[in-house]
Each structure stands twice: as C-alpha cells, then as structure tokens.
Design brief:
The protein has about 270 residues and is of the alpha/beta class. Helices cover about 35% and strands about 15% of the residues. Helix 5 packs antiparallel against helix 7. The chain starts with a strand and ends in an 8-residue tail after the last helix.
Length: about 270
C-alpha cells in the first residue's frame, strides 16, 4: 500500500485529496473501538466524485485514513480553529466528540512522530513536488483541495452546512480573482447554499501552500456529503445525486484552468 498516490497531469491545477483514504493497519484497527473502526469521518468517494472532471489535472491523494494521521493538520499539532471543537493531528475522538481508541490505546508522542514521518511527510513531499513542477511549466499553480463532510455535526458546527463551503483563509491563500471565480460558479448553481470562509476557512494544506505573491494559489472546497452520497452507513455513493453536482465541480475546475492559462492572474493577484 502506497501512503500517497500521484496522478501526474500537464495542466496548472493540482487536486489535493488528503482525507479520502481508508487504510488502517490491522494492528491499529485492533486498538480502535467500534466507533473508530467505523471510519465515519472519511471524505467518502472523493476520488470518484472528481474523477475525469478536468483532463490534465494532477492529483495527489493520501491513502491513509485520517484516524491514523490527519494529512490536513499542522504537523506541529497547532489548532487551526482556536476555541472551536476540532480533531487533532492524530485524532483521539471522532467528529461527534466520541473516543475512537480502546482505553489506553491512543497514540503517545513517539508514535505520533513516527506516523508523521511515515504518512504525513510523504503526502506533503509529493504535494510540494507537484506544485513546484506545475508552476515551472505554467508560471502558476492552483491547489484545489477536495474535501467533504456530513451535513450536520453538532460537535463541530451548528445547524446544517451549505452545500459549497469555500475556504481561502479570508482571502490570504489565493488571488481575489480565483476566490471570486469559485464563489460565482457555486452561486450560479446553488445561490442559497454557498458560504465563503465560514466554519471552514481552509485547513493546514490550503494555508500552508497558498502563497499568491509567489504564484501558488490554494482553495479548499468542503462539500456537504448529502449532494452525492448517503450520509449514514454504509456511506453509499449516489449516482443520481452526484450527476447533479459533478457538472458544477467540472465547471469550477475548468474555469480555474482557463484563468491560469490566460495570464489573468498575476503575482499581485489582480
């Protein structure tokens, strides 16, 4: 099992997929309780949902489940959302705040560091390499960070999430042109169910790589899972739902690809 897969394209977009993996070693699975073994907080079917939407896009995806280590968290373990409920680099609870490890089996500092070196570091080494490669070709790289989450999780947020949750860390991780393009494309489809920099402003991946003044731009898209799957076990993919949202995602990705190739995005972000 490769910790990370890279599907290399020749276009200016890189699709990051840090949370679609479901690999947990047998030894770690044996240390999890029933809630942990359910892997409920997976970004289920995220690769399938985006498959083929943008020819030429590069894809970097982790195959390791976020309960082993979260590839979208600061490797130093610093919270991205101080004062709000969240999960850590090596989670000890699920998104509902319930323990996922058997008593005495949650990872200690040495184990966390070992997991970071084995799984977290290779994912980000691959992502860094691909962003740099793409930028060398096009003079610009756009990281589109693909995520999804259950629509209602009271431990993390109130109420029901909009379908499209766009994160740019309040405009810091990408050109204003890119941010507006993504927002406008979502608004055109679901004007009542879009939010920009709401509960999800962009995870560590988006914030770490988004350096628009250096020609690398990053946007996180957190989709409410109800638009393409069932939000209860066995987490089935719903073709009848996905066929409605895939064209919207394709429109977003293709519009960003055209923008990047057009020269409309400068280092100044105009």
């Amino acid at each position: 099992m490769n910790a990370v897969d890279v599907i290399r394209g020749d276009g200016p977009l890189v699709l990051g997929q840090p949370h679609g993996g479901t690999f947990v070693s047998d030894k770690l699975m044996a240390r999890m309780n029933a809630r942990g073994r359910a892997l409920s907080d997976t970004d289920w079917h995220i690769a399938r949902l985006h498959d083929g939407l943008l020819p030429g896009a590069t894809i970097v995806r982790s195959n390791v489940h976020r309960y082993v280590i979260d590839a979208n968290r600061d490797p130093a373990g610093i919270s991205l959302y101080p004062g709000q409920n969240t999960t850590g680099l090596c989670p000890v609870t699920d998104f509902d705040g319930a323990d996922i490890w058997l008593p005495g089996q949650s990872p200690g500092e040495d184990e966390i560091e070992a997991r970071r070196e084995t799984y977290h570091a290779p994912f980000h080494a691959a992502l860094t390499a691909e962003l740099n490669r793409v930028q060398e070709i096009h003079g610009i790289a756009i990281l589109y960070d693909c995520h999804s989450i259950r629509s209602e999780i009271p431990f993390l947020f109130k109420g029901r999430l909009p379908v499209f949750n766009i994160g740019t860390n309040d405009g810091e991780t990408c050109s204003a042109v890119i941010e507006q393009e993504v927002y406008d494309r979502c608004r055109a489809e679901r004007p009542e169910s879009v939010v920009l920099n709401g509960r999800f402003k962009g995870g560590w991946t988006t914030r770490h790589y988004g350096r628009p003044d250096e020609g690398i731009h990053a946007v996180q898209m957190e989709l409410a899972q109800r638009v393409y799957m069932n939000e209860e076990p066995p987490w089935a993919y719903r073709e009848d739902r996905a066929e409605n949202v895939r064209p919207v995602l394709a429109d977003i990705l293709n519009s960003l690809d055209r923008l990047a190739r057009s020269g409309a995005i400068t280092l100044e972000g105009t």
